[in-house]
Amino acid sequence: xxxxxxxxxxxxxxxxxxxxxxxxxxxxxxxxxxxxxxxxxxxxxxxxxxxxxxxxxxxxxxxxxxxxxxxxxxxxxxxxxxxxxxxxxxxxxxxxxxxxxxxxxxxxxxxxxxxxxxxxxxxxxxxxxxxxxxxxxxxxxxxxxxxxxxxxxxxxxxxxxxxxxxxxxxxxxxxxxxxxxxxxxxxxxxxxxxxxxxxxxxxxxxxxxxxxxxxxxxxxxxxxxxxxxxxxxxxxxxxxxxxxxxxxxxxxxxxxxxxxxxxxxxxxxxxxxxxxxxxxxxxxxxxxxxxxxxxxxxxxxx
Length: 302
Fold this sequence. Notes:
By secondary structure, the chain is of the alpha+beta class. It has helices spanning 2-6, 104-107, 196-199, 220-234, 257-261, 289-301, and strands spanning 17-21, 29-39, 49-56, 85-89, 91-94, 115-123, 127-137, 140-151, 205-209, 239-243, 269-273, 279-284. The longest helix is centred in the C-terminal third of the chain and has 15 residues, at 220-234.
């Protein structure tokens, strides 16, 4: 990995760009790996090429080193000297929607993501993996390391093929018609017409977990907008339900019980569920109209 990173024209920070992953949950095998490329003021960048590299972090050898003792000065990182696999070019996915589905809260938030870069990465075994990125901007290339991936760490998130956990979700009726209490989008989203428990096992469902106001990376708002647009296309063939992340829409009051029931460490998430109540697709991180449409079709037709 070190050789790959050192073969570029310099570190990405010299270009004034940042690369950040927008997912945390990874399993052994193929995984969707989404990243954002932004300027330092968090404006989306879609004009560069990104290639990803991965390297397995070796397990520490037993009997080596001492608790609390730092590595010797100049010692090489065992991660960076591990063989790198790649390059894996990432594709640009737009999060744009028809203007009438773009919320004011999305349009007015300078942090709102406009695109994400997506690549399928294969992690053949559980454990810690390093991810590196090489970004080509014009004729120059720059490199950076990304936070390591802990494959298999989040094992309780519902998976494709499993039955969707039964939860009750807030509705416009249960909120007394005041959707602002169950949606931080402005204007409030309309994916709260029915309680999840009332349709599970009887109708296809797209279940979204997203809180536009409290999205640290600006991807939740655009994802809700995308879901609103796709909802209209399916015109009642599936129930679309969005669940906010925090109790009373207040991060100080911790996550809602629905979020805890699905063991979600991040947002946004979408789960496509067929009429038998089984999960047929799931995506962590931002998703565009085309990809979400395919996911909902799988639920409707499955």
